[in-house]
Design brief:
Length: 158
C-alpha cells in the first residue's frame, strides 16, 4: 500500500509514471550527469529530470523550483535547459520523424486533407495551415498589381 501511494504521489508530481521516468532517465543520464568537483557535489541526473518535468508539466517558475529542489536559481535554469536539449537529441527521431521520401510527404498531405479538408498543405506554419496553391495565386496576383501600378505614370508608390 505504501509503495502504491509513493508511486501515485511521484506520478502526480512529475506527471509521468515511474517506469517511464526511469526509462527516460536511463536514456539521457549520460548526457546530463556532471562530475563531482572538490568544491561541491553535482546534482543527480534524476533530480534534474524531475525538476524539468515539473517545470514542463505545471509551468512552475524557476524561483518556485529553486525552493522545491533546494538549489540555486541559475542551477535550475541551466538544468532545465540541459535536460530539454538532451531530450530533444534523444527523442527527436522517435517523436518527430522526418519524412525522407516523396510518398511519405504525400501521405502527410493526404492526412491533412482527410482530417481538416485542407488541400495541398503538407504541414502547418506557425500553427496555421497554409494552402500552398492559394499562397501562389495570392503572390501572382500581388505581382500583377505591382507591375500594373509600375506601368502607370507616376509609378508604384510602395
Amino acid at each position: 500500500m505504501r509503495i502504491l501511494y509513493f508511486t501515485f504521489t511521484f506520478a502526480n508530481y512529475v506527471r509521468l509514471p515511474p517506469h517511464i521516468f526511469d526509462e527516460l532517465l536511463n536514456r539521457i543520464s549520460s548526457v546530463i550527469q556532471r562530475r563531482d568537483t572538490h568544491m561541491r557535489q553535482a546534482l543527480d541526473a534524476g533530480m534534474k529530470l524531475a525538476m524539468t518535468l515539473r517545470h514542463l508539466a505545471t509551468g512552475d517558475r524557476y524561483h518556485t523550483l529553486q525552493y522545491d529542489f533546494r538549489c540555486g536559481y541559475s542551477t535550475v535554469v541551466w538544468s532545465v535547459q540541459d535536460v530539454c536539449q538532451a531530450n530533444i537529441q534523444e527523442l527527436k527521431d522517435e517523436a518527430m520523424p522526418l519524412p525522407r521520401t516523396q510518398q511519405k510527404w504525400k501521405a502527410i498531405a493526404q492526412q491533412f486533407q482527410d482530417r481538416g479538408n485542407v488541400l495541398a498543405a503538407p504541414g502547418a506554419l506557425d500553427g496555421k495551415h497554409q494552402e500552398t496553391t492559394q499562397l501562389k495565386q495570392c503572390m501572382l496576383q500581388l505581382q500583377r498589381l505591382l507591375l500594373r501600378d509600375a506601368a502607370r505614370p507616376g509609378g508604384c508608390m510602395l
